[in-house]
Give the backbone structure.
Amino acid sequence: MDTKTLVLLARHDQTEAMRVAAGLTIFGHTVRLVFMGREVEDTLENRAQADLLELAEIEPRSTLQTSELPYVPPAELCAMCLSADAVLNL
Amino acid sequence: MELMYVVSSRDARALLPPLLRATRRRGIEWGAFFTGEGAAILGDAECAALLSGAARAVVCEHSWQRHGDGESCPIELGSQTDHSAMIARTYKVISL
């Protein structure tokens, strides 16, 4: 067993991305979650998954400068992906 | 495992079979985890048949209930816990 550093790019299904990100921490992986291209939709499902992220100690970020989430600039995102053991795309 | 496919998109329906055939030809140990809309791909008979060569192939039960075709599942039903465990045991991960 080997814990990894994972970058999870939330592009299509935000709810699923949050669920998967939280689940991945179960075996001790470090998970970085980045929402890409649009604001996180304010739905009941997303709020529930956001609570899970908090429990899993994942601090999501966003590629949108206007987001309420901390902004991740392109160069930093690139570095994050390069240093990760795996990049997942949801 | 040497290689693991994480399938979360319906678009992988066209990509996955040739990749799995190539992986099998290399004779390496590989696995697959299906989640989200990727679970819908398991309705494809060709994909399901190719997965018989996996060291382990698992679909998130929640995703299968949501995106599966209602038929019996062709591979092992699991959870995000299995996903996390499989990644811990895998050298390379490919996300589709």
Q: What stands out?
A: Chain A touches chain B at residues 1-4, 6, 12-13, 16, 19-20, 22-29, 85-90 (CB under 8 Å). The radius of gyration of chain A is 12 Å.
